[in-house]
Amino acid sequence: MEGRLFTFLGAIGGHGQEWIILSHFILVIAIVFMISRAATRKMQLVPTGSQNVMETFIGGIIAMGADTMGEKNARRYLPLIGTLAIVIFISNMIGVIPGFEAPTSNINFTLSLALIVFIYYNYVGIKLNGFVNYFKHFMGPMPVLAPLMFPIEIISHISRIISLSFRLFGSIRGDDMFLMVLLMLVPWLLPLPGFFLLTAFGFLQAFIFSILTYVYIAGSVMMAEEDHH
Length: 229
Known about the structure:
Layout: H1 8-13, H2 17-40, H3 49-69, H4 71-76, H5 78-96, H6 107-129, H7 131-136, H8 146-185, H9 192-228
Helix pairs in contact: 2-3, 2-5, 3-5, 3-9, 5-9, 6-8, 6-9, 8-9
């Protein structure tokens, strides 16, 4: 437990890394289900309360994707990106609360999210374009450039896994370390501005992960649409 903040769930099951991340992820899923249940329990034509918040969230995700791939495609891929956005946001926010730890502060967790995105957008690209045509786009505009362009494209796509996972992990891990130092140095009430800053960073990282996911999927979708034109 050395060098770590106290966590309530760690006090129950120990402060081993596997238990900390798993237990807090289960907590995140429980919170997401409770929010979803509250928002859909009494659906109204004019939304109020949690329904209004959830509809605003969904509208924001769709608007984000509409700028990248059009509203129709944005709605099509909303389930994946909306789920990633809310899970990442709640995970980040849990880490701001003293006594809890953000699952996104663990590289294994963020790497798993990045792999989901990587596998999915390549699956979409292959499904829409066909296996041969999808990888044909990796070879550049001229056949003579294919030996150079294909390895570059492969490395570029694999680097997206590293980019997605390490950006989210590094930011949230840095926030956790900042919070740890802040709580060690000053009394409980004085760090309040720092908590607001960490909340803003948590929201920003969820937004960045979501928009990049839209961009990567859009790249696969646009291939098929360009070929049709």
